[in-house]
Amino acid sequence: GIQVEQSPPDLILQEGANSTLRCNFSDSVNNLQWFHQNPWGQLINLFYIPSGTKQNGRLSATTVATERYSLLYISSSQTTDSGVYFCAVDSFGNEKLTFGTGTRLTIIP
Amino acid sequence: AAGVIQSPRHLIKEKRETATLKCYPIPRHDTVYWYQQGPGQDPQFLISFYEKMQSDKGSIPDRFSAQQFSDYHSELNMSSLELGDSALYFCASSRTSGIDEQFFGPGTRLTVL
User: What is the pLDDT of residues A47-106, one digit of tens each?
Assistant: First the structure.
């Protein structure tokens, strides 16, 4: 099946810093989503982005499908950004999402 | 906007007992997915339904079964519970329209003692 790798596995930053999270995948994808899992366990949809660039407030994402990677940018980090960020993909003809192992982000006040 | 509803939110069971988890998808969503997330792990796909028919199956134990009903809600039935079944169970839904973004419910946290 499709393989999804995320880096870095852990990231500790001061409030106000910027960060870039990376997601590499091993095959062509039909769907790519970024999620934030908050400390209460809820999975929050951030972006649906199988290709191209999107922005939502302090967050933006870019997927380069031909090179099989996606980037999530977080600017001016806040403590509420802490949690685990997951990238998840599905391949053509296969609707189930395969998740990466996540990046655990900790923002220090 | 309406979201995916899951019940119960928390469930504590003893080994060898049974559990039933319920999922109510977003209105007009025709596909439901179940995922299991163990402690410190990423979510793993269990099973999915499209228009009340099973559409895909992952690493779901034979002790687990699921179905989707005429009103599109889904239930995950788990029997002979084991300690290793303790996990967060997510339901997600999507609408088959070319944009198959999945929206996740808040999850059911199952603890098996």
Answer: 999 999 999 999 999 999 999 999 999 999 999 999 999 999 997 777 899 999 999 999
CB contact under 8 A, B31 and A95: yes
CA distance B104 to B42: 14
Cα pseudo-dihedral A65, A37, B63, B16, rounded to 10: 160
Copy the structure tokens of residue A91: 């391949």
Q: What are phi and psi of B63, to 5 degrees?
A: -75, -10
* Cross-chain residue pair B44–A30, CB shorter than 8 Å: no
What SS3 class is residue B11? strand
Whether residue B42 and residue A99 make contact (CB cut-off 8 A), yes or no, is: yes
The DSSP output letter for B9 is S
Other residues' Cβ atoms within 10 Å of the Cβ of residue A5: 14
